[in-house]
Design goal:
Length: 352
């Protein structure tokens, strides 16, 4: 008789496990574990066995910080050999950031890590959380998908390709540049050609990339009228890296030479701020050679982010800089596919 797979459910917070308080919905320790223990579906033999681990303090995901990405990654690495897969129960607001960060923090991953949550608390009669819990357990325990993913509204998305696109609809997440890794209907249909190969772990199991410091990274969304003074202020020390969210295929104001000069000064030695160009569009890719307005950024030292989401670009910058890499090495790795987060386009990388 085969051994029943076992899944670790890491509860880190979010709407799914919140209850109404005098000041609004807030996470309540113990609530999720008690609720899951009372769900008759979870006792069925076709579902994996599971343990619920509460990573306190439980947080509204708006309160998540890089230190919380690290503690989730450490929790997975510490329990890695004991479970078939992992479900991370998380708030939706910054779920795409956490999923992206975990994909870079755990490069040797060979088991599923499924982030999920809900738009309505489990205390609500119409909560979408029940199905998300059931299906996430199945995906983590029975499907060979060795990636960090987000499961929401019948679709499994690669975590570092996903973005939150709606705050009221149950279809809260989408992936503008990669189809779902799986569709869930009456069956679970996995797009095997899209799933990445398992990573390789060392003799001590899964290890997180070593982090040696807390870098200063930021993101800014361009808007008509943004000026050199504001950009210069943003690029001042201690900033080390910036995600520049541009128009269309990577365009920015090119008539404002003072703005471009501020960017170029920061990207050049001795500062060497790593500036990455990501489109404000949900789908598509940055192509800095298509228009003169994009080429101007390339000449100023801005890197193409290709088809990365801003969430993936920001967390990737953080992880690379936190690992102690110098700016030149970070620039090189930002243009490489490390965890399925981008599709390189050599033609758009630079302008000579």
């Amino acid at each position: 008789m085969s051994t029943r797979p076992r899944v670790c459910v890491l509860h880190v917070g979010g709407t799914i496990g919140m209850v109404r308080t005098e000041t609004g919905y807030a996470p309540q320790p113990g609530f999720l574990a008690e609720y899951m223990a009372a769900m008759p579906e979870l006792r069925r033999p076709e579902l994996p066995a599971f343990d619920v681990v509460s990573l306190e303090p439980l947080l509204d995901s708006a309160d998540m910080a890089p230190e919380d990405w690290v503690r989730i990654a450490e929790a997975i690495a510490a329990r890695y050999d004991d479970y078939t897969g992992f479900v991370v129960v998380h708030g939706t607001d910054t779920m795409a950031y956490t999923a992206s960060a975990l994909s870079f923090l755990l490069p040797g991953l060979a088991k599923p890590v499924i982030l999920t949550g809900s738009q309505l608390s489990l205390t609500h009669v119409r909560s979408d959380g029940r199905e998300h819990i059931i299906t996430s357990l199945l995906l983590a325990g029975t499907c060979e998908i060795p990636e960090v993913c987000i499961y929401f509204a019948s679709r499994l998305l690669r975590g570092n390709r996903a973005q939150k696109v709606h705050n009221l609809d149950f279809v809260a997440f989408d992936s503008g540049n990669l189809p779902p890794l799986a569709h869930v209907g009456v069956g679970i249909e996995v797009a095997r050609h899209l799933v990445r190969k398992p990573g390789s772990t060392g003799p001590t199991g899964l290890t997180m990339i070593p982090l040696v410091r807390r870098p200063e990274v930021a993101a800014v969304r361009l808007f008509p009228g943004i000026g050199a003074a504001m950009m210069s202020k943003l690029l001042e020390p201690p900033l080390e890296a910036l995600v520049l969210e541009t128009y269309g295929v990577g365009n920015a104001p090119s008539r404002d030479q003072a703005l471009l000069s501020a960017i170029a000064r920061s990207a050049a030695p001795p500062r060497e701020v790593v500036i990455v160009n990501c489109s404000q569009c949900h789908g598509g890719s940055v192509r800095q050679t298509t228009y003169s307005t994009g080429a101007a950024l390339a000449r100023a030292g801005v890197l193409s982010g290709f088809d990365m989401t801003p969430e993936a670009a920001l967390t990737k910058l953080y992880c690379l800089l936190a690992s102690g890499l110098p700016p030149a090495a970070v620039r090189a790795r930002m243009q490489q596919d490390l965890a399925g987060e981008l599709t390189p386009d050599p033609a758009s990388a630079a302008v000579s």
